[in-house]
Amino acid sequence: MTADGETPLADFDGLRKRHVRTRAQLAIVEAENVRHAVIRYLVAQPSRRIAPFDFGWMLRLHAEMFGEVWSWAGRIRSIHLSIGSDPGHIAEHLAQLCDDIHGREPYLPDLLEQAVLIHHRAVQIHPFRNGNGRWARMLSNIWLRVHQQPLVEWPATIGGESPIRAEYLASLRAADSHDLKALLALHLRHQPRDKP
């Protein structure tokens, strides 16, 4: 059973972990792989050399997050999905996102708003077969970390059927129509604030 907004798995095609037979087991091995990327990019402030926000690095980030689990991690999908860019345009759209990130940075002073825009556009492009939401949330958090801003602490329940997932998906759909208020509000709600 696939949750609303979740990319369905095609018989676990490309799975490197042969012992995985269920979605619960898959969630465990993916979480362990993602943890390595969290340690690399979010524990300490990464330099622009480590996190350059360019095309190649965005692909490598996905591979770092999922490469121990999926053979296709970090590779642009060639299959059509119900959401995301057409496979023939993914590379172009991802390159444009990289250009937009670097072009917008000096002119958009609100770093959280920049992170929200990165998050939304990355999800909208949906460049990979799976893991796009987690990758997009990681991208936006790395952007915040690079700029020494508080990270957004997304609830674990965002990946399964839950009220927060429904709200998250609704905010992404609103952002598709150029209304970022709900997605920005979600980021703010899950971003810890310094206590006075």
What is the gist of this entry?
The protein has 196 residues and is mainly alpha-helical. Helix content is 51%, strand content 0%.
Overall description:
The longest helix has 20 residues, at 23-42. The protein starts with 22 loop residues before the first helix and ends in a 7-residue tail after the last helix. The mean pLDDT is 91. It is 51% helix and 0% strand. Helix 1 packs across helix 2 (55-66), helix 3 (90-104) packs antiparallel against helix 4 (111-125) and helix 6 packs antiparallel against helix 7 (181-189). It has one domain: Fido-like domain (Fic-like fold, Orthogonal Bundle), CATH 1.10.3290. The relative contact order is 0.14. With 196 residues, the chain is mainly alpha-helical. It contains 7 helices and no strands. It has helices spanning 23-42, 55-66, 90-104, 111-125, 132-146, 163-176, 181-189.
Topology:
Layout: H1 23-42, H2 55-66, H3 90-104, H4 111-125, H5 132-146, H6 163-176, H7 181-189
Which terms would index this structure?
196 residues; mainly alpha; Fic-like fold; 51% helix; globular
Low-confidence stretches: none
**Radius of gyration over all CA atoms, rounded:** 16 Å
**CATH fold-level label:** Fic-like fold
Number of strands: 0
Give the amount of beta strand, in percent.
Answer: under 5%
Judging by the overall fold, what is the CATH architecture? Orthogonal Bundle
The CATH superfamily name is: Fido-like domain
- Rounded to the nearest angstrom, the distance between the terminal CA atoms is 45 Å
Q: Average the pLDDT over all residues and give the rounded result.
A: 91
Shape: globular
DSSP summary: helix tally: 7
The biggest sheet, with number of strands, parallel, antiparallel or mixed sense and barrel status, is: none
CATH class: Mainly Alpha
